[in-house]
Design brief:
By secondary structure, the chain is of the alpha+beta class. The chain is built from 18 helices and 17 strands. It has an 8-stranded mixed β-sheet with strand order 9-8-10-11-15-16-7-17, with helices on both faces. A 3-stranded antiparallel β-sheet has the order 12-13-14, covered by helices on one side. A two-stranded antiparallel sheet has the order 1-4.
C-alpha cells in the first residue's frame, strides 16, 4: 500500500453519513488533517465526504472528527457541555431551555437595527456591540456571497471586522451554510472572535474548542439562534421560482421583508435576478408552513436542542400574544453569560435597547410547537428508525411508540414524507424545468397532512392545555 489510502477508518461514515444525518456544519472538515471535506449534494445540502489521508494521520484525524460532530454521539451532549460552561454562573436550568441567568423579550431602539432585522434587531446589534466595544476583533456570521462561485450559493459564513460588514449579516437566512472555511481563517488570523449560529453549529464549535486550543482561546462568545430546522438551497429556489424567477436566475433573496401594517408573523419574500425583483406575501407561497418541514435536513428531525443550550446568549422570535401584534418584531433572549448580561443592562439604561423580563413559562410557550416536535415527536421518530433497523444518535429522550396520540403519530409520518418528497420532487422539477412537478407532488401530500385531525379525547386535552395557557396570561 502506498502512502495514501481512500479508506477512512471512522464511524462517521457508517453512522452519521450513511444514515443521512450529516447536518453539513463543517466541523469534521475544520480539524487538523481533516478526513472530510464539505460538498453540496444534488438536493442543495452540504454534507461531509471522505478525502484521502496519509496512513499515519488517518486514524487520529478520524477519531477527532467523530468527537466534534454534533450528531455522532461521541462527544458530550448539550447537558454536559452546559454543565461545564454555565453551572457556576447560571442559577437555573430547565428541561428544553437549558441553563440561564435571565430571560427577556424586547427590541433594539438604537437606529437602524430593528428596521434591518427580521425581528427585534438583536442579532446584528449584539455582534456590533461586541465589536465596537473592543471585546472582540472579528465576528463570524452568515452574509450574502458576493464573489462568483460555481455552485451559485447565495450565503456563506464569513468574517467581519467593521460595523458596515456586520450590517450585511442581518436577517434570517434559511439556507445551507458550513463553518470549515471560516474556522480555518480563525486559526490563521490571531484575534478575538464572536460567532453566531444554529444550535447544532454552536454545539460543534464547543466540541471543536475541546479538541483545538487555538479555537478555544480565540472564540470568546457563542451566540445561538432559536431553531426550527435548517433548509436546503431548494427552499430559496422554490420560493423564487413561484415568484417567476427560475433557480438558475436567482441572485438574491430576502426571506422576511416586514409588513409594518400587519402582525409580526405576516411578512413578504423578496427574490431578485440580475434584471428584476419580485416581492410577494410569504403566505401566498406554497411550502412555507414551517411545520410541514419542506426542504429540511434529515438530521434536524433528530435534534433535541431548540434554545441553543451551549450558547452564551440565545436569540429568537418572541411568538407571544403581547408581542406578535407589533409588526416591527420582538426578540426573545436567553442569557447565560455574565458579560453579556451586563452589556444588555448598560444598553437598556442608556435607552439603546428595550427589554422586559419573561417567565420560564412564557419562554417555553413561545416555542411550544418546536419543543413538542423535538421531545415527544422525536421520541416517536426514534421509534420509527429503530423499527426500520437504522442507526440514530443517542438523544436526551428515548424511543417510544405511544408518547403522542394517534393523530400526531400520523402527522409525524406525513412530515417525514413531506421532507423527503420536497427534495426529490423539486430536483425532478429543476431537471425538467417544470415547477408544477414539485408543486403538485408536494401539494397532494400537504393536503393529506392538513386533513389529519385529533380524536375527541385528544381535543378535550388540547382544550385543557389552552385553558391553562389562558390562565397563565398567554391566550
Amino acid at each position: 500500500m502506498g502512502p495514501y489510502t481512500d479508506a477512512i477508518t471512522t464511524d462517521l461514515n457508517q453512522t452519521v453519513i450513511s444514515n443521512g444525518l450529516c447536518i453539513g456544519c463543517g466541523a469534521c472538515a475544520a480539524i487538523k488533517d481533516a478526513p472530510f471535506s464539505m460538498t453540496m449534494n444534488a438536493y442543495g445540502q452540504y454534507e461531509a465526504h471522505a478525502v484521502k489521508q496519509a496512513d499515519g494521520a488517518s486514524v487520529l484525524a478520524s477519531d477527532s472528527a467523530s468527537k466534534v460532530c454534533p450528531f455522532s454521539g461521541e462527544g458530550p451532549n448539550e447537558d454536559v457541555i452546559g454543565l461545564g460552561l454555565f453551572s457556576e454562573t447560571c442559577n437555573q436550568k430547565v428541561d428544553g431551555l437549558g441553563y440561564f441567568q435571565s430571560l427577556y423579550g424586547g427590541h433594539v431602539t438604537q437606529e437602524g437595527f430593528r428596521e434591518r432585522g427580521s425581528s427585534g434587531g438583536f442579532g446584528s446589534w449584539i455582534l456590533n456591540e461586541l465589536l465596537e466595544s473592543g471585546v472582540v476583533d472579528h465576528v463570524i456570521h452568515v452574509r450574502p456571497t458576493t464573489s462568483p462561485n460555481s455552485e451559485n450559493l447565495l450565503f456563506s459564513y464569513q468574517l467581519s471586522d467593521s460595523p458596515q460588514k456586520v450590517a450585511l449579516g442581518g436577517k434570517s437566512r434559511y439556507y445551507p451554510v458550513e463553518l470549515s472555511g471560516a474556522l480555518k481563517q480563525v486559526r490563521e488570523t490571531p484575534g478575538r472572535y464572536a460567532i453566531i449560529g444554529l444550535p447544532c453549529f454552536i454545539k460543534s464549535v464547543r466540541l471543536l474548542q475541546q479538541e483545538d486550543p487555538v479555537l478555544k482561546e480565540r472564540i470568546k462568545f457563542c451566540i445561538g439562534l432559536v431553531c426550527g430546522h435548517l433548509k436546503s438551497s431548494g427552499y430559496a429556489e422554490s420560493l423564487a421560482w413561484q415568484t417567476g424567477i427560475a433557480p438558475d436566475r436567482l441572485k438574491r433573496i430576502d426571506f422576511r421583508v416586514k409588513d409594518n401594517t400587519e402582525r409580526a408573523d405576516k411578512y413578504y419574500t423578496l427574490a431578485a435576478s440580475a434584471s428584476e425583483e419580485k416581492i410577494i406575501p410569504t403566505k401566498e407561497l406554497k411550502g412555507t408552513d414551517w411545520g410541514a418541514g419542506t426542504f429540511k435536513y434529515k438530521a434536524c428531525d433528530f435534534c433535541d436542542d431548540v434554545f441553543a443550550e451551549t450558547a452564551d446568549l440565545v436569540l429568537g422570535d418572541a411568538w407571544l400574544p403581547k408581542y406578535v401584534h407589533d409588526p416591527r418584531g420582538t426578540n426573545l433572549l436567553v442569557v447565560r453569560n455574565q458579560h453579556l448580561e451586563k452589556l444588555l443592562h448598560l444598553a437598556a439604561k442608556e435607552g439603546r435597547i428595550d427589554i422586559s423580563p419573561l417567565s420560564v413559562e412564557e419562554t417555553l410557550i413561545s416555542q411550544d410547537a418546536g419543543l413538542r416536535h423535538r421531545r415527544k415527536g422525536l421520541s416517536y421518530r426514534l421509534h420509527l428508525e429503530a423499527r426500520a433497523g437504522r442507526w440514530t444518535p443517542p438523544k436526551r429522550v428515548s424511543a417510544a411508540s405511544r408518547q403522542i396520540p394517534r393523530h400526531e403519530r400520523r402527522r409525524q409520518r406525513m412530515r417525514i414524507k413531506m421532507r423527503e418528497i420536497s427534495h426529490s420532487s423539486f430536483l425532478e422539477a429543476k431537471n425538467a424545468g417544470d415547477l408544477s412537478l414539485y408543486l403538485d407532488t408536494f401539494g397532494r401530500a400537504y393536503s393529506e397532512y392538513k386533513k389529519i385531525r385529533p380524536g375527541l379525547i385528544t381535543k378535550f386535552i388540547m382544550k385543557l392545555r389552552k385553558l391553562k395557557q389562558k390562565l397563565a396570561g398567554n391566550p
